[in-house]
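User: Hey, my collaborator sent me this sequence without any context and asked if I could get a structure. I don't really work with proteins. Can you help?
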Amino acid sequence: MSLLRAISYFLSAVLAFLGIIFMIASVYEPIRVVPGLFMLLVAGALLYFAVKGREIEQRRKMLEVEVIRYAKRSGGKVTVAEVASALNVPVEVAEEVLKSLERKGLAYLDFEKIGEEGVMVYRILGVKEDEL
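Assistant: No problem. I've predicted the 3D structure and written it out in structure-token form, which is a compact way to encode the shape of the chain:
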């Protein structure tokens, strides 16, 4: 879990708690309803965005796994267009996933193939052409 997500969970719990306290206190002073509702609203928004961020991160990891599987089927080298077509994702997403794999050291640009084919060709580490 990322630090930012952990802070979001913590802050949403604190704000929800304080919001509930203010709502209870509003029985004696009705003006406290406004800050209580505001705190509950902010807590809900923080929780929503933390969960949404987690879903996006999990989807990105699944796409990385799918790219590696596709690379194994296609001999270890893939292009952005091939990945986008095979996984049915936008080209920008495919490029982002391949760059993420490159940053993690799981893929690299094959400059020899780039010169031959004229497009960016990524070689996925651990997958050889003769494994087919």
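In plain terms: The radius of gyration is 23 Å. You can pass these tokens on to your collaborator as they are.
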